[in-house]
Amino acid sequence: MSSSIDGLQFPNPTQKQKPSTSKTGREIIAEALASVDPHTSLKASNEKNWRKQYPQYFKALVEQGILNASNPIQIAEAGLNKAHHTFEFFRNNEKYLLKDVMQLKAQPLHTIKLKGESNAEPEWYVPYHGKKLQGEALLAQIQKWQDHGIVEPSHADALREVIAHPGWFDLSDRTLVLFGAASEAGPLTWLSKWKANIVAVDLPNKRVWSKILETIQQGNATLYAPSVEALSADTSVQVLKEKLGANLLTQIPEITQWLIQNEQPLDLAAIAYLDGEKHVRVSMAMDAIMQTVSAQKTNTSLMYMCTPTDVYAVPAEVVEASADKFAQRSKIQQFISTGLSTLSRQHFFKKNLHSLVASDNGQNYGIADCLVIEQGPNYALAKRIQQWRATLARAQGQKVSINIAPSTTTYSVTKNPLLKAAFNGASLFDVEAFKPETTNAIMAALWIHDLRNPQSVANPEVKLAHPLELMMKGANHGGLWRVAYLARTALPFAAVYGFATEKLPIQQVLAKLKK
């Protein structure tokens, strides 16, 4: 990324060395709450320790969303409107609000087309613990995940549907746009095997495009990639690695116009990830592009992958399962967790929130609060922006695939030593962290399910009892929704267990805690 003031930025009215991301986050969340919970909105506006206290305000968004079926739409509209009126875009030393960025003159992007070299028919399997699961073996593993509470029944059912419809994987009739195409948790590898027309948007970077181009060459898909320069059709791959790409943070108008000019219906996937505050900025950039493209091309669909470490409305049955797990703890588990909770002044092993919230639709829902403080408020805001757009777009009649992906041991996660250790120790609490290759296969198939199955909740014609049910369906949370404890209060002990199991031969002893 450029170090100069260029492209999409957090507002910095006093021109300090660094803008206050906490201030911006507070303002957006407070505005989203204002019309549905003025008291909590005011409290959020005045919050002095946003980095530590933000979970209570994200929980309030969900709780207020549950109460009234119209509230999630109001919240999404207010939050997105505030964000688009807050973030700034710089070009040629001029400043614009993000909401006005599409009025800028866009320098045209050129298109390079590259066809994969394989003639293989589309196939799908799930890499898992060194095996390639297909057919009956895959069905058995899906059932096991469901029985153990790792995935929700709707997620398992969706995977069973794609197994039963192998023809769905021929994507020669679809044009799928990947923002952050080289993302480690993204579906590029699988789409490249399914004859897809792939529009790849990623940074102009030789390493990034080497990965993308090599993946495409090995498959049977067709790549469409942007270039600032007009390149001949016979340009070598070695040259293309140096020339392709577009920057989501600095080329918002250009990418938008390039996509609008595509004559095909588009399936837009917001999978780009950047660390820290850049994640919020890239989420806002994708949102601006997707909003404008959708308005111009009304047959556009949207795709998002949610994180399990967030806060969600959940079915009452999930809350009951968590309460049962708490009640059925072994005496050893009870002794250790109670002792550690007392010693830590209730910081560790807080009981999961097992109360239900009544909605005006006559149903009761629970709240799964799986936020992890260590990931920070910027991460939570970036993912909330995506949930808001998904909720609003579907309510407006657009097809939206948004599914919760499991905790995954990607590099961006495991470079944090605490999170890496916590994932290693997650099994102690009946939580499963997935390897990237497993997550990729599962989530790519789930996207195909949502595009192909008219009964999927991605289809706006499928009636939902409540807008927040969009995020309840198809969830693979790795077990986090159904744990006995508030996830972030068990995380430190999971990390200790994870560190120990890496260094010491104590797995068998500690495993007895689960019995």
What's the number of extended β-strand segments?
A: 15
Q: Which sequence of strands runs across the widest sheet?
A: 4-9-8-7-10-11-15
Spans of at least 5 consecutive residues whose pLDDT stays below 50 are: 339-345
Number of helices: 20
Largest sheet: 7 strands, mixed
- Overall 3D geometry? globular
Helix content: 40-55%
Fraction in beta strands: 5-15%
What is the straight-line distance between the termini? 50 Å
> Radius of gyration over alpha carbons?
23 Å
Structural class: alpha/beta
Summed over residues and divided by their number, the pLDDT gives a mean of: 89
Output the keywords:
3-stranded antiparallel β-sheet, alpha/beta, 515 residues, single chain, 7-stranded mixed β-sheet, globular, 20 helices
Helix and strand topology:
Layout: E1 7-9, H1 21-34, H2 38-45, H3 50-67, H4 71-84, E2 88-91, E3 94-97, E4 110-115, E5 126-128, E6 131-133, H5 135-147, H6 153-164, E7 175-179, H7 188-191, E8 197-201, H8 206-218, E9 222-227, H9 237-243, H10 252-260, E10 266-270, H11 277-296, E11 301-306, E12 311-315, H12 316-327, H13 331-343, E13 357-358, E14 364-369, H14 376-395, E15 400-404, H15 411-414, H16 417-424, H17 436-452, H18 469-472, H19 487-503, H20 507-511
